[in-house]
Write a structure and sequence with these properties.
Elements: H1 5-8, E1 9-12, H2 18-28, E2 34-38, H3 39-44, H4 48-55, E3 59-66, H5 70-82, E4 87-91, H6 96-108, E5 114-118, H7 126-133, H8 139-153, E6 157-159, H9 162-172, E7 177-180, H10 199-204, E8 209-212, H11 214-217, H12 222-241
Parallel strand pairs: 1-2, 1-8, 2-3, 3-4, 4-5, 5-6, 6-7, 7-8
Helix pairs in contact: 5-6, 6-8, 8-9
The structure holds cytidine-5'-monophosphate (C5P).
């Protein structure tokens, strides 16, 4: 899939109500084509946020992070596919059988949805991972291992930090997508994000899609903020060609 700068920017709609969503999406207008809908917004609007975005020709990344036995995850994934979302995600921690079963369902249904796996949640510390998973692998090693399992299962990519994107592309190939939050332009505040990269650096480092929320949604001028980020994405893409 040929990805232009605008295809690569996903704006996180971390809101509770449809009215808030309508306000910000109308204000941003044509500058952005893809939005992320998470659990809070999806549940609180009973899924209507997805219908609304589709009704105004926006693409949706449905961020519900399915994690269950293969049959249940696959049924939930079938529903996401039927909603015709551009992208949705499941947890790699659900294991290779679960991921393969989802991939098989996608194939049988000729699905166009991209299915992305979440590896280790960024809220985990090294110590927690070591104690909880009883593993000697550090977070990056475990995330890389699960990214390779995701690829082998036939899914399309992983959510990862832009700091990890290059390594994951090396291990899983150029066509395996990296979807990266933790992106902050030099002019924006970092909020609670810690391991951050600018949009240009993230693209240079192998990020395919950037998930950006507050630097756009809380900006004084969200359209201008989105355009500045798109310019940086362009610069990163130009740099990658050289
Ligand atoms: O406002 P901000 O740009 O920090 O929003 C980033 C979005 O990406 C939020 O919806 C957040 O939940 C999500 N996210 C993240 N870090 C992860 C996974 C998801 O920031 N590791």
């Amino acid at each position: 899939m040929k990805l232009f700068a605008k295809d690569r920017l996903i704006v996180a709609l971390d809101y509770k109500t449809l009215d808030e969503v309508k306000d910000i999406v109308n204000e941003i207008g044509d500058a952005v084509s893809t939005y992320k809908v998470g659990l809070e917004l999806f549940l609180n609007t009973r899924g209507e946020a997805v219908e609304y975005l589709h009704s105004i020709d926006k693409k949706v990344f449905l961020d519900l992070k399915f994690h269950d036995i293969p049959n249940t995850t696959t049924m939930a994934s079938l529903f996401a596919h039927k909603k015709e979302v551009f992208m949705f995600n499941i947890h790699a921690g659900g294991g290779p059988t679960m991921m393969r079963t989802v991939a098989k369902m996608l194939e049988e249904n000729n699905s166009d949805s991209l299915v992305i796996a979440v590896t280790i949640l960024t809220s985990f510390s090294e110590e927690e991972v070591s104690n909880h998973f009883k593993t000697d692998l550090n977070i990056a090693e475990l995330a890389n291992h699960w990214a390779m399992e995701t690829k082998e299962a036939g899914l399309h990519g992983v959510v990862c930090s832009p700091l990890e994107a290059k390594k994951i592309k090396e291990l899983c190939g150029e066509n395996f997508y990296t979807i990266c939050p933790g992106v902050r332009p030099a002019w924006a505040v970092s909020n609670d994000q810690k391991r951050i990269m600018t949009p240009k650096m993230a693209i240079s480092n192998g990020a395919d899609f950037l998930v950006v929320g507050r630097p756009i949604t809380k900006a004084e001028n969200p359209v201008q903020a989105a355009k500045l980020i798109l310019e940086e994405i362009e610069e990163g893409l130009e740099g990658n060609k050289e």
